[in-house]
Design goal:
Elements (H helix, E strand, L loop, with lengths): L9 H26 L5 H28 L8 H27 L1
Helix pairs in contact: 1-2, 1-3, 2-3
GO molecular function, one term: heme transmembrane transporter activity
Subcellular location: Membrane
Protein name: Heme ABC transporter permease CcmB
Length: 104
């Protein structure tokens, strides 16, 4: 369509896609478990989810833009590190607090 071959970029984009998806899933799971017991659960989840996932959105967009402009994985290493740290923190917090959150 725009004479842009994206197939050779897919191996570079896979880590960004996987890490950002993991970040959204880990945050969304714990925050949905928190908001399900509130009266305003339909409004509470987006209010809680959006500010917490801003680092995931920013790093995924910057990484993808850099790759689409011809950058290498080394150039987006800092954004990937941010995603890894974010995912690790929220996976651990979700794992440790899930039983407590579900009980209430």
């Amino acid at each position: 369509f725009f004479d842009f071959d994206i197939l050779y970029l897919i191996p570079k984009l896979i880590p960004v896609f996987l890490l950002s998806t993991l970040g959204f899933a880990s945050v969304g799971t714990i925050l949905s478990a928190i908001s399900v017991n509130t009266k305003t659960r339909e409004v509470m989840l987006p209010i809680l989810l959006f500010p917490v996932t801003v680092p995931v959105v920013i790093s995924a967009v910057r990484s993808t833009a850099n790759i689409l402009h011809g950058g290498s994985l080394g150039e987006i290493a800092s954004w990937l590190k941010l995603l890894i740290v974010f995912d690790t923190i929220f996976l651990v917090v979700s794992f440790l607090s899930f039983d407590f959150v579900v009980e209430e």
